[in-house]
User: Fold this.
Amino acid sequence: MNLYEKIKADLQRGRFPAGQALKQAEVAEHYEVSRIPVRDALQRLKNEGWLAPHGKRGVAVPQFDPLEVEDLYLMRMRLEPLLQSLAQKKLTSETIGRARDILDSMEGNPSLSAEQIGSLNWQFHACIYLAAERPTLFATVEQLHRQCERYIGYQSRRLHYQSTSQKEHYRILEALQQKREKEAAALLARHIETAGKKLVAFLRTAQGGH
Amino acid sequence: MNLYEKIKADLQRGRFPAGQALKQAEVAEHYEVSRIPVRDALQRLKNEGWLAPHGKRGVAVPQFDPLEVEDLYLMRMRLEPLLQSLAQKKLTSETIGRARDILDSMEGNPSLSAEQIGSLNWQFHACIYLAAERPTLFATVEQLHRQCERYIGYQSRRLHYQSTSQKEHYRILEALQQKREKEAAALLARHIETAGKKLVAFLRTAQGGH
DNA sequence: TAAAGTAAAAATGTATACAAAATTGTAAAG
DNA sequence: CTTTACAATTTTGTATACATTTTTACTTTA
Assistant:
């Protein structure tokens, strides 16, 4: 586990209070490395939305921002159904099988951690998206998903939204398998919309979430 | 002009041959700095699509890839009309005036360089998009535009696609001003689609463009 | 008292030197 | 002749030391 992953994990678990400015020297001391690798990690984390620019220099732990979530899910609603449609034409039964395995493995284990659920969730969609063989489009979708992770990780420790989401997954998979292209896209769009609205509502009721 | 900008400018002008691997030491020597700032710059350029990962380590100058362009423009077609629609509700006459000024300044000067035209082009759209006050959505759109820049910069040295594009700009601006929301979005979508198709066609006829 | 300028402190940016990792080339074995 | 293992070289990663920039705090002045 490299420095980037360590810091990201700690951010995901809310180890650093929102709004706090992260100084290179502090972070370096905390993780017992020099400032050079810290610089690299912070730059990358900033680009991926895990950290926010802080004034003219430095970075800070971003606040939870419902408007950001709204934007992220709006974009995902536009891009992911597109990518899924492009994938559908190239879907093999083997890919569908792997996707189903992922869903089944979630269904079976009721004792999965929030992180593990989130990871499997993405693996399911990514497995389908990758079949499209559109690396650029995939990369942007993946990046949007990464930005959402911060909020999902925060929410999923308190909220359980798994069961309905799972049913939607199975319905999407079936529509894909039966080549009902438009339905699959529409289901996915609703799937994302629902998740986004739940998340925004949760953040707003929680007064910004901190 | 910092190192990041210098390297980017040289990439934009095709100073480094496509496919070439860039080694930190070489780049550092070429620009007469140490490897530390080179590392920072290369990482950022890689994240923005100006450089591609090269095996397990290092970066390389990416090839021109028509499929990448197709993806970029597909995404822009989905996201930019959305952002423009969100902006429309908040458009002031002052913003519209500034947008018109940008278009007029392009119209007047027939002796603008390719880079200048590209810059003004983006300034026009960005001026409208910013009115939406949706920083997250704007950031992604801006990033997509940055990735397109590499191709536009390459093309615009050979192709002149200005005049038709300019007419489309004026039509979009008028639709926005007259609150014809759907028309403005549709015009923008077509505007992007047209530009994308031209660019892809150009790259394909030019055998990948190198 | 408020404002502005300046000096001190703190934080980031960069160079040099060293450590770790990956690649390449070579030799030995199948 | 191909393949595998190992050593040499190359390349990237990191620590320490120094330079530059930004911020902070204090002093001076209106």
Notes: Chain B has two domains: 3-60, 66-209. The mean pLDDT of chain B is 91.
